Amino acid sequence: MSDAGHADPVHDDAPPPPDPFALARAWLPPDDDPERPRVTLSTLGTDGYPDARTVLLSAFDETGFAFHTARSSRKVAELAAVPRASIVVLWPDFSRQLLVRGDVVPDGDAAAAAAWVARPEYLRRLAWLNTEELAGLPQAERVARWAAFSAPERSADSWVGFRLVPREVTFWAAAADTASRRLQYLRTADGWSCRPLPG
Ligand SMILES: Cc1cc2nc3c(=O)[nH]c(=O)nc-3n(C[C@H](O)[C@H](O)[C@H](O)COP(=O)(O)O)c2cc1C
Asked: N or C, fewer C-beta in 10 Å, the chain?
């Protein structure tokens, strides 16, 4: 914590930690916290234009930032074509923004199982029922089908996980009494470099 009263290590005069994970751990909730950060996940659309949507951050550690989704979804096809992505996390409020850019790899089945168990029932149903067919039905029919459906157990065919392996992690922190500031970590051959950037 800075002597100047700023509430964030990004504004601290002390040398930054050697890698971004300690700071990310200080910012983000632990993996077993049911309140998951909402993350803007950007991918490259198969039409060549950027694509983006909100997902929940399932978990993270030194191996990457995990998210989970329906195998039939557009993002899965996009990541199969170009396994690169970025996420932006606005957490816990407008005072902090975390950007991660990197390569995407499949997440392990055990991690997918853990993320599935942690999802509320509504979101589990979504993984099965959020289909083009349902989206095209009249509202009364959509409500009836939703009410009649109970989500089966997770299946690796329907629910998949990915891990974003960072090559850049940038922390943005607001300050009430000076300019916002960023700390940008870039992966190097033997670790991480870190430099401050203007907000
Ligand atoms: C707050 C919020 C959280 C969401 N979390 C997820 C999620 O964790 N996984 C997911 O597949 N979709 C999630 N969605 C739905 C996605 O934003 C998106 O509409 C859906 O995954 C289809 O995206 P795609 O067609 O780009 O693949 C969430 C939406 C909102 C608004």
From this structure: N
